[in-house]
Every structure is written in C-alpha cells, then in structure tokens.
Amino acid sequence: MNACILGQPAFVELLLIAVLADGHLLAEGAPGLAKTKAIKALARAIDCTDQRIQFTPDLLPSDLTGTDIYRPEDGSFRFQRGPVFNNFVLADEINRAPAKVQSALLEAMAERQVTVGGVTYPLPDLFLVMATQNPIEQEGTYPLPEAQLDRFLLHVKIDFPDVAAEREILRLVRGEAQGEAIEFGDPLAQEVVFAARREVLATHMAEPVEEYLLQLVQATRRPELYGEDLIGLVTYGASPRGTIALDRCARAHAWRRKRAYVVPEDVQVIARSVLRHRVVMTFEAEADGVTSDDFIETLLARVPVG
C-alpha cells in the first residue's frame, strides 16, 4: 500500500493494524491526504468490497443501513441493503451527521449488525469502518459522543507529507493520468486476513509486559500516582475496552515485525493512537493547552517498564 499512499507510512501502518486487530479507525486530517484512496487501495489488495459515504446534516439512518421497499406487484416489502453492507466503509466527515445517523453507525460498529423494521441483518465477517474528521472546519458539526469514540480501536492524526514524498506524489499522479496504473497483483483472500488475526492473538505477551500495559491504562485513571502536576488534568481515563484495544494492537504491531512476542516498545508506539480519544481532559487542562497527547506522552515517560 505504501506504493500508492505516499508520505503516510504511519497512517498505512495503523490502518493495517486496525485490520489485523479487527477494529475500526478514526482518521483526523485535512482534506486531500489520501484517506479515501487508502480504503480503496486496501479493498483492492484484499478480495472485498468498499464504499464511501459522505456524511451530511440531512443524512438519514436509512441512507446508511438501507430500508424496506414496498413491492406493489405482490404487496410485500423487500429489504434494500444500504452502503454499510460492505467490507470496508469510509464514513467521510462523520461529525457532520446528526445523532440518529451516528447511532445507526454505532450499532453497526459495535454489534456488526443493523436493525431495520424490527429485523436484524448481519454485516460481513470482514467489516471495518474508517471514519474521518476535518480538524479545520468545525461549523455545523455534531461532536462524537464519548461512547462512540470508544468504539474506535484507533484515533489516527494524519499530517502533511514532506517535500520528498510530495514530489513522488506528483510523479505518481502524472503516471496515473497517462494510464500507468500501479499493479497490485492478485488480491488476498479474506481467509488469509482471518488466519493472520488468529496469529496476532496467539502472539506471546510476557507477564511483565502485560503488567506494564495494565499500569499504563491505570495511570490514565489515577494520574496523581505519577506526579502532583497531573492532578486535575483528567475527567475520565481509558475504559477496559481501551485495555483490550492496546493489547490487540500491541500484538499486531509485534506480528507486523515478524516477532512471536510483544516487547514494551510495541505498547509504547501504539499507545497514543489507542488512548488519545479515550482520555477526557478537564476544562482546566484544555484552558492551559494540555492535550490528551501531551498527557499520554507524560505517562509514557513516567510509568516504569518492568
């Protein structure tokens, strides 16, 4: 994927980790940073379907999930599946949709199913939602509630590429305009992904590393144990779902490096993206310009390893 998504190696890595850890991803970045292209490239690399949904204030839950269509010829109703019934779903500018639409997506993300007219329909076994937020323009948006944020395995912040990468992007776009498409080869079967997930879960985590992971999550809830200057910074720490997410992502990070075991560095590298949206800072901390990223960085420096 790095061949067509240039200048964003960290984003590509975290997207692959989300697939391996069987979770959803929230990507925050300015427009034009290849978020849509990343999902399409992933769907081409794996034998599956993808769909982009543009979230707008007038979007209805049925636009996402589908609806029952009346058939006058026999007087029956037939369920017309919505765009959420795809393997990879890009929810573009998710915070522009009203609460009812976000609630419908929350059920799909959490339960891997949708309910329409009292009937429940299962979603594909391979199912990933990548939602995007534009950090620049916030007018007319509906902030995501903490319960929905917690459903995202990872919260990734995407920055602009450097000059060298942007030069390569220009050359790639010119080549595509001239019909020089990137060859992906044969797509992977979905069973290959499921097998990889089983290997990820089987990756060994020694007890000291597990203890370090647990203490790191505990520190988000009781930061005063690691310094008086951290008192009053956090309203809520990470939930147990955050602990599970950190465990799975650390294993996936180790597996991606062809290791059969997890080391503390795997936990540290992935901790920011797993915890930043699960830690709610106080108004006083926000007024002082202390972000959740700053807070997590401090914890990584102070929570002892082993």
Task: Tell me about this structure.
Helices cover 43% and strands 17% of the residues. The protein contains twelve helices and eleven strands. The strands form four sheets. Strands 2-5-8-1-9 form a five-stranded parallel β-sheet. Strand 6 and strand 7 (119-122) form a beta hairpin. The longest helix has 17 residues, at 240-256. It is globular, with a radius of gyration of 21 Å. The model has no long low-confidence stretch (mean pLDDT 89).
Spell out the CATH superfamily of the largest domain. P-loop containing nucleotide triphosphate hydrolases
Kindly name the structural category. Answer: alpha/beta
Number of spatially distinct domains: 2
Order of helices and strands: HEHEHEEEHEEEHEHHHEHHEHH
Biggest sheet layout? 5 strands, parallel
Distance between the termini: 36 Å
Please tell me the overall pLDDT.
Answer: 89
Strand and helix map with partners:
Blueprint: H1 9-20, E1 24-28, H2 35-45, E2 50-54, H3 61-65, E3 66-71, E4 76-81, E5 88-92, H4 99-111, E6 113-116, E7 119-122, E8 128-133, H5 146-149, E9 152-157, H6 163-177, H7 190-202, H8 207-221, E10 234-236, H9 240-256, H10 264-275, E11 280-281, H11 283-287, H12 292-302
Parallel strand pairs: 1-8, 1-9, 2-5, 5-8
Antiparallel strand pairs: 3-4, 6-7, 10-11
